[in-house]
Amino acid sequence: MAISAHPSTVKVVGTNGQISLGKQYAGRHVLVEECEPGVWVVRTATIIPDNERWLHKPKAAADLETAMNWSIDHIASDDDIESSLKRLDHGEQ
Q1: What's the CA gap between 92 and 72, in Å, rounded?
Q2: Phi and psi (nearest 5°) for 76?
Q3: pLDDT tens digits for 25-48?
């Protein structure tokens, strides 16, 4: 049997079938796996919305890292805004 780094605690399942894991986990998503009847593994999880999943792919992550590094070396400025707007075809019509 594996030795746990944290001591076991006794929780009581309420009449509504719920247990409290503690306020430090309030609002967190968790995965609950039933290994066998009466044996559960509860793990915290981060949920990524489908429309943001592409951001976590290696190419997108690398492109974002490159862009963030570029932005550190190139301070934002409005000095040449007219030229930028013309180049982007957003000048006055």
Answers
A1: 30
A2: -65, 140
A3: 999 999 999 999 999 999 999 999
Most distant CA pair in the chain, distance: 75
For residue 29, give every residue at least 6 positions away whose Cβ sits within 8 Å of its Cβ, in sequence order, or none.
44, 45, 46, 47
- Location of structure tokens 């190419």: 59
DSSP per residue, 20-77: ---GGGTT-EEEEEEEETTEEEEEEE----GGGGGGGSHHHHHHHHHHHHHHHHS---
Our CA dihedral for 19, 21, 25, 27, rounded to 10 degrees, sits at 10
Residue 44 one-letter amino acid = T
State pTM to two decimals: 0.50
List pLDDT tens digits, range 42-69: 999 999 999 999 888 999 989 999 999 9
Residue 64 is which amino acid?
A: L
